[in-house]
Structure formats: structure tokens, C-alpha cells
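Sanity check

After download, print the first record. It should look like this:
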Amino acid sequence: MFLSKVDVTKGINQELNEEFILQFFAVAVVGVVEWWFRNGLSVPPRVMARQTGILLDRNF
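Expected C-alpha cells:
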């Protein structure tokens, strides 16, 4: 899904490896979900989804 959004030919991702970028963000998302569970699901799911989406959009 995100592979089509990763442009490594120009801008901030220029010359970076596409697979590296995707792996980096996949690990980040898993880490956030782990944090969420460890903190007792203290943030509503909609907020988690929205904020995760915003962060991904900002960086792709």
C-alpha cells in the first residue's frame, strides 16, 4: 500500500532504499501498537488510527 507513495528519486527520500523505509515505518507502527497495549489501551482506537495515519502521511 505504501510502496507506491515512496519516491526515492527526489525530495527527502532521495537515494534511500525503498525497502529500508518501509521496514522502518513498519517497525515504528508495531512499536506504537505495543506501547498502546502496555499502557492499557489508554488512547481510543480512533485516536490511535488518526495519529498513526498523520505521522505516516507526513513522512511518505
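If your output differs, re-run the checksum step. Summary of this record's structure: The mean pLDDT is 89.
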